[in-house]
Design goal:
The structure holds two protein chains of two kinds.
Chain A (H helix, E strand, L loop, with lengths): L1 H18 L3 H21 L3 H22 L18 H31 L8 H14 L4 H9 L1 H24 L1 H5 L2 H5 L12 H24 L8 H18 L7 H22 L4 H4 L4 H31 L2
Helix pairs in contact in A: 1-2, 2-3, 3-11, 3-14, 5-6, 6-7, 7-12, 7-14, 10-11, 11-14, 12-14
Chain B lengths: L5 H18 L3 H22 L20 H32 L4 H12 L18 H14 L1
Chain lengths: 326, 149
């Protein structure tokens, strides 16, 4: 019952997020959509995915959206009003276009739903059974999801961290592009220590509360990382929580004393280590000769991934805040 | 099994996101639509393997009770790549906004065409740039886009 209510609310929230004219409100709808998604993943027996969605999809994405939209005047720039000239024709054509695409997509969605049921799909059991029966003996992990993404399918994780790395590089490049003409070279741009305008208006209250919350969130993040092989969680989720601590600190105390260059270097070193550790341990089949090192390997790799994800997300956020405050 | 289940809702959500991608002219709306489609895809992957009540694949549970761990591991990857996509697209949007002061696909397209025709565009315009075209010409542009749909 709860699941059905949440699923219906999910559809309602998606429609509201798309129909909303004010961008900031749309972003908040999007955050609630992500949070409900997370609850539904939990009902679908996927606590790892639920934590990842709650931390990364619902929190960090929303912060990035809000920082990106911070400068823009909420009223005049962000409305979807058509232009002044020939308003009637343009508006009518716009309506017709929207109606046409809505009808087209409705037909397409009906076709998809029909195709999904004819013939009725049967679950594939072989791979699922293989993983479910053997993960504890093979990898020593109590959490089958961790066993898969750190042992059976390590390539996925390697390319995922590479994708995050590329994204960080893209953010740095594109946020530098315009600044190069203003402030000169990249080095100057990176070492700029000016204090940014605060993102939060009322530092005393938020500062006090954040001070109380810091150690708790930090502890939570570290626990998620270190227990990732036995309980829901892992490197990606824990790293995102640690990055959230840094983002919170920046919002309360907007100083640019976190050196992006250093963090970038740490991230690159971590990426090399993340590639090297499985290469030495898994691909040389040491995990079969020395099975007692399986659990230390999982904890080590989870910690490395956490540091890398923390650095990556923090760099993205700092570049956003820096770029947007110019 | 009821009609309202994860797989059905995720297909509907995917098409809602696709509608937002096609019909909205705001760039931020496009990014939000991509986010909605992403959530729908994740929900689809998690729900297709689920035929009865299942327990999370953690610890010592009976194999028949345990949910399939493979889609879950893949979907954690999808979520992390999703935030990477959001960050990259938002940076592109910001740089476009700083350069042209527009938040609109149609206007950005017109500005690009104007630039291609050799008109000068103010480089760091904080002020709104108004492109005014006669009604007929705009209508033609809308026509062209309709064919794309």
């Amino acid at each position: 019952m709860l699941e059905r209510i949440l699923l219906i609310l999910l559809v309602v929230l998606a429609v509201m997020a798309i129909r909303q004219k004010q961008m900031r409100t749309a972003v908040i709808y999007m955050a609630i959509y992500s949070l409900f998604c997370s609850a539904i993943y939990l009902i679908h027996a996927a606590p790892d995915v639920a934590i990842a969605e709650a931390v990364i999809g619902s929190t960090i994405s929303t912060v990035l959206y809000l920082v990106a939209l911070k400068r823009q005047d909420a009223v005049c720039l962000i409305t979807e009003a058509p232009q002044s000239r020939g308003e009637d024709t343009v508006e009518r054509r716009e309506r017709a276009r929207q109606l046409l695409s809505a009808v087209f997509l409705f037909v397409l969605a009906s076709l998809f739903l029909y195709a999904y049921h004819n013939p009725k799909p049967e679950p594939i059991q072989e791979t699922a059974d293989l993983y479910r029966r053997r993960f504890l003996a093979d990898t020593g992990a109590g959490n089958a999801v961790t066993a898969i993404y750190l042992n059976y399918r390590i390539f996925d994780t390697l390319f995922e961290t590479l994708t995050l790395q590329i994204s960080v590089m893209g953010v740095i490049y594109f946020s530098r592009h315009k600044l190069a003409s203003v402030s000169g070279t990249l080095a100057e741009d990176m070492n700029d220590k000016r204090i940014m305008p605060p993102l939060v208006r009322e530092p005393p209250i938020t500062g006090r509360i954040a001070g109380l919350l810091f150690p708790l969130i930090l502890l939570f993040g570290v626990a998620i990382v270190l227990n990732g092989h036995r309980t829901p969680g892992g490197g990606f989720q824990g790293g995102a929580i640690l990055a959230a601590v840094l983002i919170m600190r920046y919002m309360v105390l907007p100083q640019n004393d976190m050196r992006i260059e250093v963090m970038q270097r740490i991230e690159k070193v971590m990426f090399i280590l993340i590639v090297l550790v499985p290469l030495l341990f898994l691909f040389s089949l040491l995990n079969f000769t020395w099975p007692m090192f399986n659990v230390p390997y999982l904890v080590l790799l989870n910690s490395l991934i956490a540091i890398k994800v923390c650095c990556g997300i923090s760099i993205i956020f700092l570049r956003f805040a820096y770029y947007e405050s110019r | 099994m009821s009609i309202i289940n994860g797989a059905h809702v995720s297909i509907i959500l995917f098409f809602i996101g696709l509608y937002g991608l096609i019909a909205r002219r705001q760039i931020v709306k496009t990014i939000i639509s991509i986010g909605i489609m992403e959530g729908a895809v994740i929900l689809f992957f998690l729900s297709i393997g689920r035929w009865q009540e299942q327990t999370p694949p953690i610890g010592d549970v009976a194999v028949e009770q345990m949910a399939d761990p493979l889609p879950q591991a893949l979907m954690i990857t999808a979520i992390v790549i999703g935030v990477a996509i959001t960050a990259a697209t938002l940076t592109l949007y910001l740089s476009l906004h700083h350069q042209h002061s527009t938040t609109d696909w149609v206007k950005a397209k017109l500005l690009n065409e104007a630039a291609a025709m050799g008109q000068s565009i103010p480089e760091s315009g904080q002020q709104q740039i108004d492109i005014e075209l006669p009604g007929e010409e705009r209508a033609e542009k809308q026509d062209g886009e309709q064919d794309d749909v």
